[in-house]
Every structure is written in C-alpha cells, then in structure tokens.
C-alpha cells in the first residue's frame, strides 16, 4: 500500500512538473510573456525575464529570446544568431523620448562614451523609430536581431517600424543589459535565467 501511495505521489509530481515546463506563457506584474517568439521561420526561446525599476517605479518588463538557451552573457553578445529583446512598458511615466534617452544612456554605460561615435547613425535611427508615435503604457517592443540581415528589426505592438543595420551595433545594443556594466545587474541575471 505504501508503495502504491509513493508511486501515485511521484506520478502526480511528475505530471505537475511537466505541466509547468510545458507552460506556453508566463506572467510577471500583469505582463504576459510568451515562451517563444516566431521569427524568420524559427522559434526563439525564452531565456529569461525580469523587470527594470527606476526610482522605485517599474518602467518595463523585459524578456530575452535566443536560438539556443545560454547563461553566458559574452557568448550571447558575440553570437551571430537570431535573438531578441522584448520590452513591455509598464509605467505611464515612460514616453518615447524617455525610452530612447534611457537606451542611449545604457549604451554609454555598456561601451563607454569614447566608443559611442561609431554608432551615431544607428542611434539616430533607433530614436527616429521609437519616436514615430507616442509610447504609452502597455506598448510592447520586440527588438529582434536577424543574423541573415545583420540588422535589428524594431517592432512596436507587432508592427515592423524599421531596421537598424550592423552586427557590432547588435553587440553594443544587447550589451545595454548583458555587458559587464549593464544598466541593471539584477535584470541581467534574470535575463540569463539565473534568477528563479
């Protein structure tokens, strides 16, 4: 009898565990995060997710999607494979201008002011794409790197806004969150799947 109860408990545990693993979406602070993103006939997999807080206010929920899951930030930055960042705005305090300014500051922190000049064209284009129309709470941005095009494709609420060329820019841009000097160390750990 004890053996049957033990077997039953093991089966129930395995069933719940596999159910959790098969979960298609996650939710954090009211934001739904899909387990995969379809991009260029491929499924990018959720590597990790977390939220960015500034002055005690959560400004966005972010997720990192990769072709092959990894906890190594350097490998991710150096990888010329399809990958993506998803940002969903969670505060009405975030405007298009504030978002592009924040990303600009993140680039400076990531690569240093002295290295920023080489990305002036791409940063201007990023600002233009982000400022086409007002950004409001719950807007979602998918910033997807295409290894075939060597460009980051900028989607806002699933609508393609434009492309920003350059593998080196991709490394610097993803470095905002994954470099040795990220904008938020706790968020970096979460994106790498190291925070449970």
Task: Give a description of the structure.
With 196 residues, this protein is an alpha+beta fold. It has helices at residues 2-21, 73-78, 96-111, 120-130, 167-178, 185-191, and strands spanning 25-28, 31-34, 36-38, 43-54, 57-66, 83-89, 140-146, 151-156, 159-165.
Quickly describe the structure.
With 196 residues, the protein is an alpha+beta fold. The protein has a single domain, classed as Chalcone isomerase (3-Layer(bba) Sandwich).
What are the SSEs and their pairings?
Blueprint: H1 2-21, E1 25-28, E2 31-34, E3 36-38, E4 43-54, E5 57-66, H2 73-78, E6 83-89, H3 96-111, H4 120-130, E7 140-146, E8 151-156, E9 159-165, H5 167-178, H6 185-191
Antiparallel strand pairs: 1-2, 3-4, 4-5, 5-6, 6-7, 7-8, 8-9
Largest sheet: 7 strands, antiparallel
In CATH, what is the class?
Answer: Alpha Beta
Low-confidence stretches: 1-22
Q: How much of the residues is beta strand, in percent?
A: 25-35%
Put simply, the count of helices is: 6
Domain module count? 1
* Quaternary structure type: single chain
Topology, number of strands: 9
Query: How helical, in percent, are the residues?
Result: 25-40%
CATH topology: Chalcone isomerase
Secondary structure category? alpha+beta
Shape-level CATH architecture? 3-Layer(bba) Sandwich
What do the pLDDT scores average to?
83
What is the H/E string?
HEEEEEHEHHEEEHH
- Shape call: globular
Please give the order of strands in the largest beta sheet.
Answer: 3-4-5-6-7-8-9
